[in-house]
Amino acid sequence: MANVAVVGSQWGDEGKGKIVDWLSERADVVVRFQGGHNAGHTLVIDGVTYKLSLLPSGVVREGKLSVIGNGVVVDPWALLDEIGRLREQGVKIGPERLRIAENATLILPLHRELDEIRENSNSGTKIGTTKRGIGPAYEDKVGRRALRVMDLMDLDALADKVEKMLAHHNALRRGLGQEPVDGEKLTAQLKEIAPEILPYMDSVWRLLDGERRKGSRILFEGAQGTLLDIDHGTYPYVTSSNTVSAQAATGSGMGPAAIDTVLGITKAYTTRVGEGPFPTELDDEVGQRLGERGREFGVVTGRKRRCGWFDAVLVRQAIKTSGITDVALTKLDVLDGFDEVKICTGYRLDGQVLDYLPGGAALQARVEPVYETLEGWQETTFGARTWGELPAQAIKYVRHIEELIECPVTLLSTSPEREDTILMKDPFED
Ligand code: GDP
User: Which of 58, 221, 336, 380 makes an SS bond possible with 66, Cβ 3.0 to 4.6 Å?
Assistant: First the structure.
């Protein structure tokens, strides 16, 4: 039996929600290991749509343990809102089903404000963040002034910790022309929310070690995508955490040997939200059609996603940096009905052809995609559950992608419905 990490291999929104949900039915434990409440997974179960931002996808199923690891930044108010929304949909959530790492960092209202102030100011780089305070919370974690879940336990020491943190934040706020944060008020807010959060708190590394020894199947649920990784992504247009699979170990307190299969969720074309380089972006009616057919609007922000052809160079790079062992290809049905489909196989830069994305936003913005053109297919792949139902050209497209990205496609998704999936290899099998 194997533990599985699921990561996005592009810029996020690859359809991880559906695959994670599909896998979580078979897992015992589902763990989130990075990011915050900006994940925006959509799950469709028996026709009911659930939108999750922070909670692991296992939470909508009974009998599964959902874990928020130390690598996640947790906004306690947003967490309680999300739990409340799911309860209204009939999902039962309590400490027997959800645990949060004691050493996870808290997102506070001042982090969200800082995100907004920066994103709305004209100076600095516009990243296109979701303005949820996630980046500023990670900054405080690395700056060693963050509050963590376990700080909600020691209420006598809380005021002092808040003041230490505010020494930094209020100096920053003054510089940005903002009012300072009232420490007493913030401490009171935290004291008020503490009893609602603490029942979920746990020593997650120990919990997971125990589960592993019991032989539980553990599913690590990544958010965003490899190209948004703080180290390996298209910096500075990236998220503020590591999104590569190695983070599943760091962000949960397990060693790298705990992860056997790394399933890279990969969209059959490319999308990107917000700013940053995007070599295969299409500003024409093809891009528009991909966006409409694929319903490419953000779950969290409602923002329209930029769309383009499949970029095999980027996905191959993501496969290497994230250690992806298997690819789950999603949204193949969105390409139905195109006369021809294109795949980017290299980049032209200053008269040379590159087989990788060069480092640095300036060079990345200048690369020109080199395309291979394949014949499209007019038949539908929508809802296919076997290879036999797929048109020959669609199979050819998938097989060619496998060759170019140097990784097998072991799972194929053909609609938003969970069961509309073609499985070539069980990720939980060794
Ligand atoms: P995530 O952040 O990676 O989970 O991506 P999203 O939640 O934004 O998922 C993308 C959207 O595509 C969701 O609305 C899914 O229901 C939908 N979706 C997932 N897989 C497929 C598929 O194979 N075909 C189609 N047409 N839609 C899909």
Answer: 58
Catalytic: 41? yes
Residue nearest to atom 25 of ligand 1 (CA): 415
145, 164 Cβ separation under 8 angstroms: yes
Domain boundaries, the chain: 4-102+203-258, 105-197, 266-423
Please write the tens of the pLDDT for every residue from 221-231: 999 999 999 99
14: Cβ below 6 Å to ligand 1?
yes
| Ligand 1 pocket mutation, candidates 16, 55, 330, 385, criterion most atoms within 8 A of CB | 330
Check whether domain 4-102+203-258 has CATH 3.40.440.10, yes or no: yes
Contacts by 228-233 with C-beta closer than 8 Å and gap 24+?
228/8, 228/11, 228/12, 229/321, 229/322, 232/318, 232/321, 232/322
Kind of pairing, strands 306-308 and 270-272? antiparallel
User: Counting atoms of ligand 1 from 1, which one is nearest the CA of 8?
Assistant: 3
Ligand 1 atom with minimal separation from the 294 CA: 26
Q: Could you read off the pLDDT of 350-409 as tens digits, one per residue?
A: 999 999 999 999 999 999 999 999 999 999 999 999 999 999 999 999 999 999 999 999
Choose, from 21, 37, 41, 169, the residue flagged as catalytic: 41
- Considering only the top CATH level, what class is 105-197? mainly alpha
Query: What's the 396 CA to ligand 1 centre distance in angstroms?
Result: 22
Ligand 1 center–CA 344 separation, angstroms: 22
- For 271-295, how does the pLDDT look when each residue is reduced to its tens digit (9 = 90+)? 998 889 999 999 999 999 999 999 9
Residue 49 neighbours by CB under 8 Å, 6+ apart: 42, 43
Confidence of residue 207 (pLDDT cuts 50, 70, 90): very high
The three-class DSSP label of residue 13 is coil
